[in-house]
Amino acid sequence: MVITSIRVIVGIIGSAVCVLLYAVPALTFKRVIKEASVGEFSCLPYILALFSALTWGWYGFPVVSNGWENLSLFGTCAIGVLFEFSFIIIYIWYAPREKKKFVVLTVSLILAILCMIVSFSIFTFHTHHMRKLFVGSIGIITSMSMYSAPLVAVKQVIKTKSVEFMPFYLSLFSLLTSFMWTLYGVLGRDPYLTAPNSVGCLTGILQLVVYCIYSRCKEPPKALNDIEQVIINLDVATSRREDINGCSLNSKA
């Protein structure tokens, strides 16, 4: 009972921090609305974050989990889905025709994949254990792929000797989110939540160490070519999702 109570408290704190991470891109989309253009921003990180939130939200739903044992996870992912759908809709509204088509097709694809996951979960597996194994394994894959993105940002910081592309507070809150969900998974003896978020803790610590080293560097950042700049924009946006496992809880959810 004590462990269950502690887990609930940890889940609430983790949810609060994770929601803050979900809200960070609002600043980016405020600029998009102001300029009436998406510029060089890619919508792919937000689509991946949406898929992660949907997957982990389904994992936390009573059909997969045993009752509402993962209520905090489900609630956080539900909020994350609302944020990501909002960002994607804004992106589609201001994007040129070619990008609109790509985003609509990609979102349609992940929704189709989600429907397949839900169908398999319900009609193929008939116990909570097997459903958690199936959905949790998919969640681990999506979360691990998203947690690898900040490593590219770390590489760019080392290359340019500038922390411009890796904001301190994003790295800090990504680490806190991963830590809280790792603890949440440990308390619930849930390896599907513990594994990806443990990796998120490691990447978060790495980001902070690199930040501390290069934040003291006074050299101006090296010029980057256009291709490198696009890659950085993509990966900095993705690093904001460490979470979620379920968020990366991508990202980071």
Write the layout of secondary structure elements.
Blueprint: H1 2-23, H2 26-35, H3 44-60, H4 71-94, H5 97-123, H6 128-147, H7 149-160, H8 168-187, H9 191-214, H10 226-239
Structure description:
It is a single chain. With 253 residues, the protein is an all-alpha fold. It has 2 domains: 1-216, no CATH class; 222-252. The protein has helices spanning 2-23, 26-35, 44-60, 71-94, 97-123, 128-147, 149-160, 168-187, 191-214, 226-239. The two termini are 27 Å apart.
Task: Sum this structure up briefly.
Belongs to the SWEET sugar transporter family. This protein folds into two domains: 1-216, no CATH class; 222-252.
Helix content: over 70%
Q: How many strands, what sense, and barrel or not for the largest sheet? A: none
Counting structural domains, the number is 2
Task: Report the end-to-end length measured between terminal Cα atoms.
Answer: 27 Å
String of helices and strands: HHHHHHHHHH
Helix and strand composition category? mainly alpha
Which spans have pLDDT < 50 for at least 5 consecutive residues?
A: 221-253
- Strand tally is 0
- The proportion of residues in beta strands is under 5%
GO molecular function: sugar transmembrane transporter activity
Membrane topology: Multi-pass membrane protein
Subunit structure: Forms homooligomers and/or heterooligomers.
Function: Mediates both low-affinity uptake and efflux of sugar across the plasma membrane. Mediates both low-affinity uptake and efflux of sugar across the membrane.
